[in-house]
Write a structure and sequence with these properties.
The complex is a heterodimer of chains A (about 350) and B (about 300). Chain A has about 350 residues and is of the alpha+beta class. Chain A is built from ten helices and 18 strands. Chain A folds into two domains: about 220 residues, Rossmann fold (3-Layer(aba) Sandwich), CATH 3.40.50.300; about 100 residues, OB fold (Dihydrolipoamide Acetyltransferase, E2P), CATH 2.40.50. The C terminus of chain A is likely disordered. Chain B has about 300 residues and is an all-alpha fold. Chain B has one domain: MetI-like fold. The longest helix of chain B is centred in the N-terminal third of the chain and has 34 residues.
Chain lengths: ~350, ~300
């Protein structure tokens, strides 16, 4: 497989603020690659650097092996789906989709045909005559996709494209986007702050924190083997134990993580470790119930299958023992030690 | 328990709170009365005057309806004044638009903080001074022996200046008595009215649209022509209505700067003043109204307001 996008020690500083700070990254051709992180973590700036809206303060950006670090956006073979869709309000849907073809000088007939094909691809055929203002949020989203895909870019950049949609539509669009990416076979670079979205769609994910990459891995590896406390806490829910508590359960000084679904109530059995704390609250989540337990000032969560008698088993304020298998426990690198691979 | 406050004002508030229509009527009555009676009323009176008869012998206005005043507009001398004014207003508007757009673009897209404030002040500053004073100041600037002649002499461009003044239509005896001079003063005086709406319109175009255009392969000039200009055009049209109609109706600058020969404004001024031919003056005044109406209809047809 060839490499679609490569970042070499890329930084983007605004005065003293290091929005992106020494990021190195390799994205392969045909990959669905997500940049995941909280707001202000540098993921969007990173995407804008690849698109060419921002220029790096230092480092190199390569697109299919060619140095594109200093190229303007209109000379890069990448297209962007914007968070606010950025559809041209004075043009019809069909004109929006055909815009990239028009500025390239493709003739009117070919333009109209390709635009209609692209609209068909996103299930909007027959909507070409409308104005963007007459469409729903989900439809605008599709037009933005069609407008980028009609140019057949080798890399598609998506900046939180589902952020403005409601939950049901978002879930539906996730499935559609993933299917679309498989069909057209182009590289997707997808920015999101929603870890569920990243986990369900991506081939690989880069987790951003404070302008740096904490970890790059497949969704499965990221969830099962987080390397830093930040990744453990940001991707899914994790009980991260540090200091004396960590030492008591693992015997070492490094922080450890255990997922709530691996924690159960009761004393530790063979091959397990345990702690004792005070029950703070029980939250009912349908199939599971989450027990929040305060262990010497550290809040821990145990997710157990709902049985219907949670309230009877233990009451808030009561002392409760929790335990988990030694093998379910992950030893993390100390905070701040994480870096790009 | 807190006591419910109910003074006279409190009672009035409560009464109005539930009666949206009454509230609306009370709020809109003063501006609508002003607009309806003073503004539209005077306009109607004006148009009405324009179809009255002017008795040339008695120099009096007779309330007999006639189209004679409008027919009089088509007499060569009068038509000439209309066309001259129209040409000047068009030239001033185009010049203002060309000068204002880059400045407005810079103010809307690049200038930040103190620089932006400074630019706004710089644009508005001329409006703080009396308009008549500025017009007189320009007569001094443009006169023979004035700043521009002096500067042209220093730069060795006196010959070029004389060559320009020797040209028909734009030229004249000196800059201050040429159409070029009048054009310069009009452009100076009305430029802020073009900059401000254009700046507001450009500022309203989201940055992401310009980025999307570049992202889709458009070079900067293509983005300007196909995205920025169409979206900012309503602002330019708004500004051009100011520059255009203010030039059409002005009667001070044409008296002070430029060649002899009347413009619409000076024509109206002399007709209603010294001659007292109010009906013909009213007919002249109807010309700019019709022209601006036609202009707006064309702008609308061209899609200038589609992005509003």
């Amino acid at each position: 497989m060839s490499i679609a996008v490569q970042l070499e020690e890329v930084s983007r500083h605004y005065g003293a603020v290091r929005a992106v700070d020494g990021v190195s990254l390799t994205i392969e051709d045909g990959e669905f690659f997500s940049l995941l992180g909280p707001s202000g973590s540098g993921k969007t700036t990173c995407l804008r650097l690849v698109a060419g809206f921002e220029l790096p303060t230092s480092g190199r950006i390569l697109l299919h092996g060619q140095d594109a670090s200093r190229l303007p956006p209109y000379e890069r073979d990448v297209n962007t789906v914007f968070q606010d869709y950025a559809l041209f309000p004075h043009l019809s849907v069909a004109e929006n989709v055909a815009y990239g073809l028009a500025v390239k000088g493709v003739d009117r007939r070919a333009r109209a045909r390709q635009a209609e094909e692209a609209l068909e691809l996103v299930a909007l055929s027959g909507m070409g005559e409308r104005r963007p203002g007459q469409l729903s949020g989900g439809q605008r989203q599709r037009v933005a996709l069609a407008r980028a895909l009609v140019l057949k870019p080798r890399v598609l950049l998506l900046d939180e494209p589902l952020g403005a949609l409601d939950l049901k539509l978002r879930e539906q669009m996730q499935t559609e986007l993933k299917g679309l990416q498989r069909r057209v076979g182009i590289t997707f670079v997808y920015v999101t702050h929603d870890q569920g979205e990243a986990l369900s769609m991506s081939d690989r994910i880069a987790v951003f924190n404070r302008g740096r990459i904490e970890q790059v891995d497949s969704p499965r590896a990221l969830y099962r083997r987080p390397r830093t406390p930040f990744v453990a806490g940001f991707v899914g829910t994790a009980n991260v134990l540090t200091g004396a508590l960590a030492e008591r359960v693992s015997g070492g000084g490094a922080p450890v993580s255990v997922r709530p679904e691996h924690v159960h109530l009761g004393a530790p059995a063979e091959g397990e470790v345990g702690l004792t704390g005070r029950l703070v609250d029980v939250q009912y989540h349908g199939p599971t119930s989450r027990f929040e337990i305060d262990v010497e000032g550290t809040r821990m969560v145990a997710a157990l299958p709902s049985t219907g008698d949670e309230d009877a088993r233990v009451r808030a304020g009561e002392s409760v023992s929790i335990a988990w298998a030694r093998s379910a426990m992950i030893v993390l690198e100390p905070e701040g030690a994480g870096g790009a691979p | 328990m807190t006591a419910i406050r109910r003074g006279v004002l409190g009672a009035a508030s409560t009464y109005l709170y539930r009666r949206g229509t009454l509230q609306l009527v009370l709020l809109l009555a003063p501006p609508l009365l002003w607009f309806g009676v003073v503004y539209l009323g005077s306009l109607v009176a004006l148009v009405w005057q324009s179809v009255y008869t002017f008795d040339d012998f008695g120099m009096t206005v007779v309330p007999e309806l006639t189209w004679a005043n409008y027919r009089a507009l088509l007499q060569p001398a009068n038509l000439d004044a209309v066309l001259r004014t129209l040409g000047m207003a068009s030239a001033v508007t185009v010049a203002c638009a060309l000068l204002a757009f880059p400045l407005a673009y810079h103010m809307a897209r690049h200038a930040r903080g103190a620089t932006k404030g400074l630019l706004f002040v710089a644009v508005m500053l001329p409006m703080w001074a009396s308009y008549i004073v500025k017009a007189y100041a320009w007569t001094v600037i443009l006169a023979r022996g004035g700043v521009i002649y002096w500067l042209a002499g220093r730069l060795g461009l006196s010959g070029a200046l004389e060559a320009v003044l020797a040209m028909p239509v734009v030229g004249g005896f000196s800059l201050s008595t040429s159409n070029l001079g009048r054009f310069a003063v009009f452009t100076y005086v009305w430029l802020p009215f073009m900059v401000l709406p254009t700046q507001a319109a450009i500022e309203r175009v989201p940055e992401s649209l310009l980025q999307a255009s570049a992202d889709l392969g458009a070079r900067p000039f293509q983005t300007f022509r196909t995205v920025l200009l169409p979206l900012a055009f309503p602002g330019v049209v708004a500004g051009s209505i100011f520059t255009f109609s203010l030039t059409l109706g002005d009667y001070i600058i044409p008296q002070l700067v430029g060649p002899p020969g009347l413009q619409i404004g000076t024509m109206v001024y002399s007709l209603q003043g010294s001659v007292g031919n109010m009906p013909l003056a009213a007919a002249f005044t109807a010309v700019p109204i019709v022209i601006v109406g036609v202009y707006l209809a064309i702008a609308r047809r061209l899609g200038a307001f589609d992005a509003l």
